[in-house]
Design a protein that fits this description.
Elements: E1 2-9, E2 15-22, H1 25-34, E3 38-43, H2 52-59, H3 67-82, H4 87-97, H5 101-115, H6 120-125, H7 132-144, H8 147-204, H9 210-244, H10 247-258, H11 263-284, H12 289-299, H13 303-317, H14 323-327, H15 334-346, H16 349-405
Antiparallel strand pairs: 1-2, 1-3
Helix pairs in contact: 2-5, 3-4, 3-8, 4-5, 7-8, 8-9, 8-11, 8-16, 9-16, 11-12, 11-16, 12-13, 15-16
Length: 406
């Protein structure tokens, strides 16, 4: 991508000059032809005018668009449209101010397609960063003439979704880091500290207690096999990660993660919060229940829950209410299904689903807080117990020897 300068004549045979931001000379000629300009000369961009970021996007080296970045773009576009700024002008402003090269490229292509007569939803469908949920909501907003309102709802939805994901990641990250650091400390003690004591004990020639001998044996094992265990652990992690990315592996992993003590509840509530929030946003925008469920299935992170929602969709197609199949899902709370039933009866299911999402968000907050309070002392006790056992095992013969000398 870069700034191409051009000279030519317009439809009135008047000389025109200017510049255009494009990926290639071919694109420049195409764009000028659409403006009825006959090209006489095109000057390619100099190295100073070259856009490295967009070049990296074209070559596949640029980072992807995050939910936070997309939410920021959506919120700004909503404000501009609500203020009466023409859509093309708004996209141009956001293109100039956007820092992420991948999103900049997407905005530029959307603006180009809209300028050629496509709707915003049609233009966004061709870009990877705008998923099915996003495009369907934009389409509904365009059809209803409330695009700014829909974009505002969409930005709020993405903020909530990002918050829930961050909570789940935070809940997983804390114990992982603590256990990793504790494991490293124990490994260092077993490989470097214990052998020093072993040499001293052998010199004394005294009988070694069973617990000391056990620690020495473990230390010898770790010292001998660490060069094999570390690469083995890395290979295992890579193979496990590759397996989880397969359809079968994803289902197995999601099943396993949902059954984990402490973490399982957070994962389930987090996904149900995302489902309720997404469904509420879609229904509030006028999307049909069947299409809304279909989009929810695609946007859910957990494949097990997505599969269960697929069964709900099938029952709804058969003529069942939304509440009936949801009641058969064992991890879906009874109180929540009753709230949805009330929403169906009053014709305010989208508003009730929003409240349901808030209930789940509150439960996730509470679970994360409780888990942190519980797991922190548990990890400290376990790791402290291991380290204490090692120290006692090493010093016990010394104490016994001192006592025997008396």
């Amino acid at each position: 991508m870069g700034i191409y300068k051009y000279e030519g004549v317009d439809s009135a045979n008047k000389k025109v000059m200017g510049q255009i931001d494009a990926a290639s000379e071919k694109d420049v000629r195409k764009a000028l032809r659409s403006q009825s300009i006959r090209v006489k000369k095109i000057t390619p961009p100099t190295i100073l005018e070259f856009d490295l970021g967009l070049w990296m996007v074209e070559k596949g080296f640029a980072k992807s668009v995050t939910t936070k970045e997309l939410g920021g773009f959506t919120k700004q576009l909503s404000i501009m449209i609500g203020a009466g700024v023409p859509i093309l002008q708004g996209l141009e402003i956001l293109y100039r101010s956007e820092k992420n090269p991948s999103l900049r490229m997407a905005i530029k292509k959307v603006a180009t397609d809209v300028g050629e007569g496509k709707t915003i939803a049609e233009a966004m469908t061709t870009q990877k960063c705008f998923d099915k949920l996003y495009c369907n909501l934009v389409r509904a907003g365009e059809a209803g003439g409330i695009l700014d309102t829909i974009l505002k709802k969409l930005s709020i939805h993405m903020e909530k979704q990002e918050k829930t994901k961050a909570q789940i990641k935070s809940a997983m990250m804390y114990p992982t880091v603590v256990v990793a650091v504790g494991t490293a400390v124990v490994w260092a003690m077993m490989v470097f500290v214990v052998p020093q004591f072993t040499g001293m004990l052998k010199e004394t020639g005294q009988e070694i207690p069973w617990i000391t001998q056990f620690v020495i044996d473990v230390s010898d094992f770790m010292g001998a096999y660490t060069p094999i265990m570390v690469p083995g652990a890395i290979v295992f992690a890579i193979l496990l990660s590759s397996y989880i990315k397969t359809p079968t592996g994803k289902i197995v992993w999601d099943n396993f993660s949902m059954r984990l003590p402490l973490f399982g509840g957070i994962i389930i509530k987090g996904n149900l919060s995302s489902f309720s929030n997404t469904l509420a946003t879609l229904l509030g925008a006028g999307v049909s229940l069947i299409d809304a469920l279909d989009i929810c299935i695609e946007t859910l992170d957990n494949s097990v829950i997505a599969k269960d929602i697929l069964e709900v969709k099938k029952k709804v197609i058969e003529g069942k209410t939304l509440t009936e199949p949801l009641q058969k899902i064992e991890y879906f709370p009874e109180l929540v299904t009753q709230m949805i039933r009330v929403g169906e009866q009053t014709g305010q299911i989208d508003q009730m689903l929003t409240r349901v999402a808030e209930v789940f968000e509150g439960e996730v907050d509470e679970l994360v807080t409780n888990m942190t309070k519980l797991i922190e002392p548990l990890i400290i006790v376990v790791l402290g117990g291991i380290i204490a056992t090692i120290l006692v095992a090493m010093y016990l013969p010394i104490f016994m020897s001192a006592g025997g000398g008396d």
